[in-house]
Every structure is written in C-alpha cells, then in structure tokens.
Amino acid sequence: MGVIKTKGLVIKEVSYNDSDKMLTLITEDYGKITVLARNAKKNGSRTSYGTQVLTYGEYVLFKGRTSFIMNSCDVLMNFYNLATDLTCFTHAAHMLDMAGDAAQDNMVSAQILNILLYGLQALKKGRTPLLVSASFALKLMQITGYPPHVCSCASCNTCDIEQIFFSFKYNGFICENCSKQDSEAVFVDIGVAKGIMYVLCAQKGGVFNFELSSELLNVFSNIAFRYISQHLDKNYKKLDILNEF
Ligand SMILES: [Zn+2]
User: Fold this and answer.
1) What band does 245 get if pLDDT is binned at 50, 70 and 90?
2) Going by CATH, does the domain composed of 2-78 fall within 2.40.50.140?
3) Which stretches of 79-168 are assigned E, i.e. beta strand?
4) CA gyration radius for the chain?
5) Quick one: angle between helices 86-102 and 106-124, nearest 10?
6) How close is the Cα of 159 to the center of ligand 1, in Å?
7) What separation in Å is there between the alpha carbon of 152 and the centre of ligand 1?
8) For residues 8 and 28, is the Cβ–Cβ distance under 8 A?
9) Neighbours of 130 (CB within 10 A)
10) How many A from CA of 194 to the centre of ligand 1?
11) Residue 178 CA to ligand 1 centre (angstroms)
C-alpha cells in the first residue's frame, strides 16, 4: 500500500460498522473515491476529524489495489453551517448528489470539485439557493461535455431567432419554426436565455453571481434540472420538492 495526498470534499458518509465510516470524496487527483475511515465514529478522536459531509480538506490516504483507507486529514474549509438552514442544506445536498453522479471521469473531477466549492461558497454567502443549484447543474453539464447548444437554432442552425425555445430533443435553443415540430420545447424569455448563456460563459465564483426574478428563475431552474436529469439518466425526484421552496 502506498501513501498518497490529495485535496477533496466529503460528499457522503455511511456508517460501516460500530466504529468505522465509509466516505465518498470528490478529489482533485483521483476522481470520485470511497475511503474507509477507521474509528471515525468515536467522537473527538483524531480519526473522526475531517470525516463529516461538507468537509473540504487535504487527505492523506493509504492506497491499496482497490480501496483507500484514511490516515489523516488537514481541514481546509467546511460548510457545516449550511445545515442550519433547511432550504440551503437541501440545495447543497442536491448539488453533492449531482456532482457525485457526474464525477465518473477522473479527468473532469478536479473541475467539478472546483465549481462545487464555488457553489457551496455562494450558498454560504446567502445567494438564492435555487439559482445556485440550477446554475451548478448547467455548469456541471458543460464541464462533463454536454453544454446546451445556444449560439443558433440547434435544429435548423439559423441565427435569425426572434422567439427562443429550449428543446430537450435537440439539447439547446431552437427557433420558433422548429418549435412547432417539438411539442416539449419550452418558451424561453430573453432574460432566461441570457441567464443560461451567462452561466456557460462565466468562470469560478462568477457562475453564481447574477440575479433572476423569481418567475424567470422558475423557468431557468426547470430547464436546468430537466436537462441534467436527461443527461445523467436519473430522475431527480427531489426536484419537485425543491421547486416548492
Ligand atoms: Zn430552427
């Protein structure tokens, strides 16, 4: 077994037996990994340090052929206080979920980790939770290689679009004409279209640094969550509950 060091965020913790925990981390260098944390359930013990969900730290791990065992952790940042607000925490949990599902590929996990940290920071700063989690969903799709097509009609390719629609069939904006052939296309107000394009262009913390009226935010978030559900092939049932907040 070799010893490795990597930065990562705990996205899940599961009780493994009476004293141990199994953690899921999104890491900078090793993608999404599961790590056995021995004696982590003993309160106040050195080994419980850094094993909580929403901990971001530098982890020292023993790397076996198929598994990782935690040795120690240097906590760099934590987002535990998000748990004090139910709405915030629900959106944070949803973001961890989406990130975990999208982080299958080691190549992009560092980028996912990075944008996830910026998203959690935005929640911590008090940005609108629905705007943060929906923007995160969209940015996540771009990072993993599935950005929606926004520079012309995704169906006929015309740039001459007066009324914009979002198509889940063509994965992006389509024109009014093409929308007649796509019964599930959603009319997109110019403010929503700008929001989508803004998120795709923005970097780092800037991704979460814009405003939408609650009416536009509803359309924006419905599109973002439906888009990611379709691509990750997972029905995010919690979304219905989330939209009520
Ligand atoms: Zn068209």
Assistant:
1) very low
2) yes
3) 164-167
4) 20
5) 170
6) 8
7) 8
8) yes
9) 21
10) 19
11) 4
User: Please, are residues 147 and 228 in contact by the beta-carbon 8 Å criterion?
Assistant: no
> What is the reported pLDDT for 244?
46
Tell me how far the alpha carbon of residue 153 lies from the centroid of ligand 1, in angstroms.
5
Higher-pLDDT residue of 66, 225: 225
3-state SS, residue 39? coil
Q: Which CATH class is domain 81-151+158-242?
A: mainly alpha
Q: How far is the CA of 151 from the centre of ligand 1 (A)?
A: 12
What is the whole-number distance in angstroms between the Cα of residue 193 and the centre of ligand 1? 16
Running DSSP on this structure, what letter comes out for residue 35? E
Rounded CA gap, 205 and 195, in Å? 15
Give distance in angstroms: CA of 157 to centre of ligand 1.
6
Which residues, chain by chain, have CB under 5 Å from ion ligand 1?
153, 155-156, 175, 178
Ligand 1 centroid – CA 150 distance (Å): 12
Quote the ligand 1 centre to 164 CA distance (angstroms).
Answer: 10
| Residues carrying CATH 1.20.1440, the chain | 81-151+158-242
* pLDDT at residue 236 in the model: 65
**In this structure, what token pair is assigned to residue 160?**
């001459």
Q: Binning pLDDT at 50, 70 and 90, where does residue 234 land?
A: confident
How would you classify residue 145: left for phi > 0, otherwise alpha for psi between -120 and 50, otherwise beta?
A: left
